Amino acid sequence: MPAVLHALAADLIRTSAMAVADVKFAVYRSGLDAVGYAKGNVPVRTGELKNSIGVQYSATGLQFDLEAEADHAAYVEYGTSRMAPRPFVGPAVERAGRELQAKLQAVPPPSLMSLAARWR
Question: Residues with Cβ < 8 Å from 27, sequence gap 6 or more?
């Protein structure tokens, strides 16, 4: 393969890697935002539930799970026969998801046209 094609391929890989890094950063920030939204909306009696809220990221960094690990988290989120639900995880994930979509739309895709223009 000619040297020019090697250089073009390297540029394409570098541009793609930068786009993936931008997406991973957007997912990372959205996970932190979701934790903040959940902690801001959770009912607080002792603080145990609020302090149990956290985020875990997938190995790829392209996904996150919002977690509330207190034993009574599900009872608060979904309610019981004697207590109305007071959701805090679901709304936080929904809000962070909407904001993540907006962030991802702002990430410029790797442009083959811009790479081709540099190599004319």
Answer: 57, 61, 62, 63, 64, 100
pLDDT over threshold 60, residue 116: no
3-state helix, strand, coil in the chain (%, to 5): 60, 10, 30
Residue type present at position 109: P
- Domain containing residue 53: 3-118
Structure tokens at 9: 């391929």
What's this model's pTM, rounded to 2 decimal places? 0.80
Quick: pLDDT tens for 35-87. 999 999 999 999 999 999 999 999 999 999 999 999 999 999 999 999 999 99
Instruction: Produce one character per residue of 70-91: b if its CB has 16 or more CB atoms within 10 Å, e if not.
Output: beebeebbeeeeeeeeeebbee
Total domain count for the chain?
1
